[in-house]
Design brief:
Layout (H helix, E strand, L loop, with lengths): L14 H8 L1 H39 L2 H4 L1 E6 L7 H8 L1 H14 L12 E6 L3 E2 L14 E7 L6 E6 L14 E7 H7 L6 E4 L7 E11 L5 H4 L8 E4 L9 E8 L15 E7 L11 H13 L1 H10 L4 E3 L2 H44 L1 H9 L4 H30 L6 H25 L19 H24 L8 H4 L1 H16 L1 H11 L6 H10 L6 H36 L3 E4 L9 H6 L6 E8 L3 E2 L8 E4 L1 H11 L22 E5 L1 H7 L4 E4 L5 E9 L12 E4 L12 E5 L5 H8 L4 E4 H6 L5 H44 L5 H34 L6 H4 L16 H28 L13
Parallel strand pairs: 4-10, 6-8, 16-20, 17-19
Antiparallel strand pairs: 1-11, 1-12, 2-4, 2-11, 3-4, 5-8, 7-8, 9-10, 13-21, 13-22, 14-16, 14-21, 15-18, 17-20, 18-19
Length: about 900
């Protein structure tokens, strides 16, 4: 029996596995690029959200609890109600149930911090106590506030005695209650355990308050104690607060147990109930800012307050400044978000270009293979699908890895924005190769066709696309110039304006740069040797696919220039603001008495001090014996004029303060430099000024300046100190010049009676919000990422041309080209495009900054809302930010070309000289 032989059919090798095995290096490089880009893309929104949340929490936490806490209060029941009902309203069970009802009406995202929120009963009128053992600064008896706040045991530590308590039910007629005081109150008012206070009664005898304990706050700055600071710290108050010479008396608080609250009805204190809701910092998120403001408005003056009134009574009212705090942060957030989105668009554009270049490099390396597949009948859709699957096998795990690293490195933010960013990077990476291959092999053609700019002319579609980009960029620039970033519109088109300017410049440069190279190549042909002429001719006929490299370079250079200028502008705004606040590098001043003798000489000897200008400032000087006060600054004309020139604060010449400047009709009038407001009020005629010591001088305004170093304000007169009286001329302040001055040595030389204010310390406190610091960090990271991707784009561009260049060197070596000439050829061929790109990048960055600076205001990023002495901080060009990235591009280009030439010299020429090679 013959068994028939059946030939086994061999299965075809899978496409993806075969391709990955044939080029593992390219797959690893693509995976690394996608992983890093996905990580950066996912990290950007997470880092920004973390900074936003930290900035919001900082804005709420830095203000006193009296501003951030939502305070609800309701008066005691009217006297015409039954006494038992009035007492029941103030009892702790009733107030606690009302507190629970209020918590039930609060709408998220406003979440009260139960650990710091409080409720209780207090007197609205401080009661005068006749006890003589209390301190009386101006023979006036002290006053006390009676406060029955719940939770005293949990928020304090017992220092002496015991906590107060009650025995039996307390009523309006209760003759005596127990109370505690804080350690500060006990120390200041001389209260001891066992002390007795007699609070005047209303229609009854005095209420006896016996002190049984002294408590220390566990968290004295927390909302429980700091919402009403009187709870922990007594206050020395004047009878007439506006009169600094009126009599003073002490006001303190005594802390009753909540069960003793009905006893307050027996005093003239007019008790009221209160509920204080402290916001929970951990629940504050910038993404909920709008909803938080809406919830707060409802609780304070809307439907939420109406619901609270149904629980606590119709006369319930509210007070908070948290809405102002949130509005201030909202303005800061809007300005910061508009600026940081510029950096995000710039870096994102460069990253997308690099991913597209990576796909283009892969498509170009496989041009022959893909053309052969198309010639053998492969459909365009099937070919693109295979390439997409091949890339996705590498890119998807790499993108997931980058996302995981970003989420792990930056916890505490939403995952969805990071997932979308990483997904966008992965999709671009997967689609770059199929789309590039589909565009190149849409028609079956011979792969050896030339691809330089002389043979591939721009199509009509490309022209239309470029004109569309020009129109979009022009619209974005006009919108930004008119509207600016301070308005906080969040218009993404405005944020993309610098990138669009770079895109237009790149497209123009691609079209124009071959023209000057061809013009130079002609005269270079008459020189000895062929290297210069050949390199210029090849540079002028470079590949038509050079659009993406130039686009990446110019976009990166524009983003780097813009970001660097923003960072430099932030630094300049802080420096100038600190200079305005201090007046020099350091300021030593005594507000009450003249400076000690010899302090000027001691300050001069401090390390780092270059010069010292002594001035006398009379803040209460009165021109024309009127009621208006104008600071009069007595200076040494030479030293102070030099200080104004050095600082740029109202510079004037020494001759402006010469005594003879007043003219023949001026008499003995002192020439003065005045502010515009003072000059408008008193004119140029001589007028008398009464100094603080009672002496009189006559001054005549001869020069007007907006600012002056010695005084921070809009009113001042600067005169020669030699023309003042002996007392008025004694220095009260020293303006020290020296950025490196030793602050510690200056404080030691000044002593405790003289305040020392350093410009460096003033500048350091301007980084008020974590959001401001975070924006600087993100901008720096964006500039660094843009620079890195620009270098990568340049490397990809040179790698794409590497096979052709190596083959060219091999052929030229057979004609006698030496290795040094080969290196020079590659460098000169790469240099024109790099130089033109660098020059174009400088011009593009400069143009973008000049065009967009009228609409950019850096105050929101540079200065905190609480301290903003500058009206505006416009964006200026920074020379280092323009030139350093451009020079780096040229240096990297030359370095890569040298390495490429060295590597080509080490390779054999046999492989490069194969017959039929199309390179």
């Amino acid at each position: 029996m013959v068994i028939p032989f059946r030939r086994a059919e061999s299965a075809a090798a899978p496409w993806v596995r075969t391709r990955l095995r044939s080029a593992p290096g390219a797959a690893i490089a693509l995976a690394l690029l996608v992983a890093v880009t996905a990580c950066l893309a996912a990290a950007f929104p997470r880092a920004l959200e973390r900074y936003e949340d930290a900035g919001l929490r900082h804005s709420v936490e830095q203000v006193p609890p009296s501003r951030s806490v939502v305070q609800l209060y309701a008066p005691a029941p009217l006297p015409d109600l039954p006494q038992g009902r009035r007492e029941q309203t103030l009892r702790p069970a009733t107030v606690k149930s009302q507190y629970d009802g209020i918590l039930g009406t609060v709408r998220r995202p406003f979440v009260p911090d139960l650990g710091q929120s409080s409720y209780g009963v207090a007197t609205s009128v401080n009661q005068q106590v006749p006890d003589h053992w209390l301190p009386r600064p101006d023979a006036l008896p002290a006053k006390v506030a009676l406060i029955a706040q719940a939770g005293l045991a949990g928020h304090s530590r017992l220092s002496e005695g015991r906590l107060p308590r009650v025995s039996g039910a307390v009523t309006t007629a209760t003759p005596e209650v127990e109370a505690a005081v804080s350690t500060d109150t006990a120390k200041t008012l001389h209260v001891k355990v066992g002390s007795v206070l007699h609070v005047p009664g209303a229609g009854r005898g005095a209420l006896v308050v016996r002190i049984t304990g002294i408590v220390a706050p566990r968290d004295r700055d927390g909302a429980y104690w700091a919402t009403d600071p009187l709870l922990r710290t007594p206050v020395l108050t004047r009878v007439k607060p506006a009169d600094p010479y009126s009599a003073r008396y002490w006001v303190g608080a005594v802390l009753l147990p909540p069960e003793a609250a009905p006893a307050l009805l027996g005093t003239e204190g007019r008790p009221y109930r209160y509920w204080r809701l402290a916001p929970s910092p951990d629940t504050l998120h910038a993404r909920d800012l709008g909803a938080l403001q809406s919830s707060l408005a409802s609780l304070v003056s809307g439907p939420g307050l109406h619901q609270v009134s149904t629980v606590t009574g119709s006369l319930t009212d509210s007070y908070t400044e948290l809405d102002d705090v949130l509005a201030s942060y909202s303005r800061l957030h809007s300005g910061v978000l508009a600026l940081i989105s510029v950096a995000g668009f710039g870096s994102g554009t460069v990253a997308v270009v690099v991913l597209a270049m990576a796909g283009g490099l892969a498509a170009d390396r496989r041009r022959t293979e893909l053309a052969l597949l198309r010639a053998r009948g492969a459909s365009l859709r099937g070919l693109a699908a295979r390439l997409f699957a091949e890339t996705a096998v590498v890119a998807v795990p790499a993108g997931a890895l980058g996302l995981a690293v970003a989420v792990r490195a930056l916890p505490g933010a939403r995952v969805l924005p990071a997932v979308l960013a990483a997904l966008a990077v992965t999709v671009v990476a997967c689609a770059a190769l199929p789309l590039r291959a589909a565009a190149a092999h849409r028609l079956v053609r011979v792969p050896a066709l030339r691809q330089d700019v002389t043979s591939v002319r721009p199509s009509r579609r490309r022209t239309v696309a470029e004109l569309t980009l020009v129109a979009v960029a022009a619209g974005a620039v006009v919108s930004l110039r008119r509207q600016g970033t301070s308005g906080g519109s969040g218009d993404q088109l405005i944020s993309a304006a610098p990138v669009l300017v770079g895109v237009i410049a790149a497209l123009l440069l691609v079209r124009l740069y071959p023209l000057p190279l061809r013009g130079v190549a002609g005269p270079a042909g008459r020189l000895r040797g062929v290297v210069t002429h050949l390199s210029l001719a090849r540079a002028g006929r470079s590949s038509a696919s050079a659009v993406l490299p130039l686009l990446a370079l110019l976009t990166a250079l524009t983003t780097a220039s813009f970001g660097g200028s923003v960072l430099a502008g932030i630094g300049e705004a802080r420096d100038h603001s600190a200079l305005l606040a201090v007046g020099a590098d350091a300021r030593l001043e005594s507000m009450t008495d003249p400076l000690p003798a010899g302090l000027t000489d001691r300050a001069r000897r401090v390390s780092g001090v270059r010069d010292v200008a002594a001035v006398s400032v009379a803040y209460q000087a009165k021109p024309n014996d009127g009621r208006r006060t104008v600071p009069v600054v007595g200076v040494d004309p030479g030293g102070y004029a030099e200080l104004t020139r050095r600082t740029g604060l109202g510079a004037f010449s020494e001759e402006a303060l010469e005594k003879g400047r007043g003219g023949p009709g001026a008499g003995a009038a002192l020439p003065a430099v005045a502010s515009p407001s003072v000059a408008d009020t008193y004119g140029s005629a001589p007028f008398p000024v009464r100094m603080e010591d009672g002496s009189r001088v006559t001054v005549r305004i001869v020069t007007v300046r907006d600012i002056t170093p010695a005084v921070m304000g809009t009113d001042f007169l600067v005169v020669d100190r030699a023309g003042l009286g002996a007392t008025a001329a004694r220095p009260t302040a020293l303006l020290v010049t020296g950025p490196e001055a030793d602050g510690r040595a200056l404080r030691e030389a000044a002593g405790s009676a003289v305040s020392v204010h350093l410009r460096a310390d003033e500048r350091a406190r301007y980084v008020d919000s974590p959001l401001q610091a975070g924006v600087e960090h993100l901008y720096t990271a964006a500039v660094a990422a843009g620079a890195g991707y620009a270098v990568l784009a340049l490397l990809l561009s040179l790698l794409r041309a590497a096979p052709e260049r190596i083959a060219l060197l091999a052929r030229l070596r057979t004609m006698g080209l030496t290795r040094p000439q080969g290196r020079r050829l590659l460098v000169l061929e790469s240099l024109p495009q790099a130089v033109l790109a660098a020059a174009g990048g400088v011009l593009t960055g400069w143009a973008a900054i000049r065009l967009l600076s009228p609409g950019m205001d850096l105050i929101a990023v540079a200065l905190p809302p609480s301290v903003a002495p500058l009206e505006r901080a416009p964006l200026h060009t920074d020379a280092w930010s323009l030139t350093v990235p451009a020079l780096a591009v040229v240096a990297v280009t030359v370095g890569i070309a040298c390495v490429q030439a060295w590597w080509a010299g080490r390779q054999g020429a046999v492989r490069e000289l194969r017959a039929g090679d199309t390179r």
